[in-house]
């Protein structure tokens, strides 16, 4: 609360909301774990808001980037992931992917926005077609999930980094509040990136970074590569990486591939 007061001032909507979360946490008996849904439900009942449109989205996004300590853990997530300790900071970087607008200081959440976790791509596909912009709030992995559902609908993505590297995201969490208003008013521009379309039998998908072909077992496989039905080469290896310019700094680079300009149309094999 002190850090946010110095940054935004005590008169904003952010500070009172954070204090309310703090009050709820203080009332939790020692040794009990309170889940994010319980906190959201308590605030929703108090303010007459729906759980699906919490007034505290920006609070949790800020906590995701700054809070620490596994005293705030989510039991449901721990059971789902089957891990002994899943920290507060890791958990809260996930639920506000795909259009979860951060409420700006002194304002309310955009009424036409929607939210969807990164792992629920099918649910997001139902919403993204009618959207003007997708906010990917997380790390590079979240951006890749967003690309899967946004590319077919030709909807641009704006990445807000809550992860570690954030190589392909545009804004850091502490920049979002000050820069989002101007970007949403048209101050920015759309940067196009080449993508890959892969098919396996009757199933297909899009990839922003790369497609990897390999055996399910750890062994060498024989691979024949063709371009427009013309033979290129044959490989005997543990697999093949097909990467875009965006993916040239990822797995491909680790395997010895070159780095391409981000807007290059070339493909690395």
UniProtKB/TrEMBL annotation:
- Coiled coil stretches, renumbered: none
- Which Gene3D superfamilies does this chain map to? Probable inorganic polyphosphate/atp-NAD kinase, domain 1 (3.40.50.10330)
Q: Which GO terms describe its biological process?
A: NADP+ biosynthetic process
Q: What are the protein's GO molecular function terms?
A: NAD+ kinase activity
Q: Name one Pfam family in it.
A: NAD_kinase
Q: What is this protein called?
A: NAD(+) kinase
